[in-house]
Amino acid sequence: MPTVLLRHALAPLSVLVLLAACTASQDTNAATSTLAQASSTAMATPSLPADDGEDAGLDDLDDSDELDDPANFDPAAHVRRQLAQQPARRGSGGPVQACTLSGRVTIAGHTEDIRDCMQSNGSLSVAEFQQACQGLANGLNQTGNAPAKIEYSNRCPTPAQGSCRNFMNSGMDAFYYQRTDLAPLPGSCAATGGRWQAGG
């Protein structure tokens, strides 16, 4: 896949990593060698031991050798398959809360300063939500970026450049404030079950 297409396909990395925070395994020691594997590791459910001698671990992206080939990897399709394979995970309930992550990220050779916020709808406890925010920051760090700064608040600030409401059917909203290229975000939001809203 050409670098430009890969960059646009993965530009909303924070959304993918947020799914990771909500559905990830607790294995934070997995070593990743590619961006595709990093996003997969973050989104992988706990794996069962393989009884057929084949690799069914965190580096097995889609339980298919053909789909594991980086030339065939489609991040949006991968997210849809992951969502279909697991039941919706809902938290134990809590207040509406938000966390803003800021820092410099590089995705497929494209570097930008980001300031993204995710806001719960009250479905997660404070501890669950903080774990999700930390998971998002850790996911960005796993892809070779410097640790993101996390700020907690009651709600995401307004106005925003745009937001993905109920992204990935998680019951949470993602807000974007400092993106230099918003063009790929509406499509990736819709492709993963969310509803894009300009401004916010």
UniProtKB/TrEMBL annotation:
Keyword Signal listed: yes
Region (Disordered): 39-73
Keyword terms of this UniProt record: Signal
Signal peptide: 1-30
Biased composition (Low complexity): 39-50
Superkingdom of the organism of origin: Bacteria
Biased composition (Acidic residues): 51-71
Protein name: Uncharacterized protein
Natural source organism: Stenotrophomonas koreensis
